[in-house]
Amino acid sequence: MNFSLSDYAAKCGVASPENFAKKCAVLREYLIEINQTTNLTRITEENDFNIKHVADSLGLALCFPELTKESLRIADLGCGAGFPSLILALAFPHWHITSIDSTGKKINFVRSAAEKLGLSNLTAVHGRVNELNRKAEFQFKFDVVTARAVATAPSLARDASNFPAKNGSFILYKTPGQAEEDMPVLLKDFKNFKWQTTDTYQLPGDAGTRLFVIGKRLK
Questions:
Q1: Is the separation of the CB atoms in 133 and 162 below 8 Å?
Q2: pTM of this structure
Q3: I need a surface site. Which of 99, 101, 138, 174 has the fewest CB within 10 A?
Q4: pLDDT digits (tens, 9 = 90+) for 177-204
């Protein structure tokens, strides 16, 4: 499949899709360079990178197009090598992304990649989410708290319970199978949030089925 990242970015509401695609190519080359000495990801081939990392990260904008018009404070928990953090910061410069990971080599990569790409709207934080959850500077600060391929939704809801602002939400990247397991626990144990799921959608190139688990703060 010959996947056009710029076309997909335009579909997701990215204002400058061709420039975005060029910046993603720079990010991929930098990731390959650092990956030679620091194991960050096995997905580096161009098409795979563009679909499984970039397009997957853009799912937040694809499913919630209304958010692309807003100025948001977003926390990405367990950001890993920066997906979705770096991609969302590149796509939507009016969003401020706080990338959090407990692994130093990963957060160092995200920080250096953000500098290389000139992303002034991304802050990289080295720390454990459950510890940061007890610190005032992270409590009730974020409009959206997201995570991709990190932990179960109940674990994230417990460890980052104080992160969402008064009207904030968890919006978590999941597969249908993961959501099926997570939702009964969320509905039973986390009643201070209203939980639901989006419809499923397909990644390009038959790369998988995705949805989002949403938890809107009630109190």
A1: yes
A2: 0.96
A3: 138
A4: 999 999 999 999 999 999 999 999 999 9
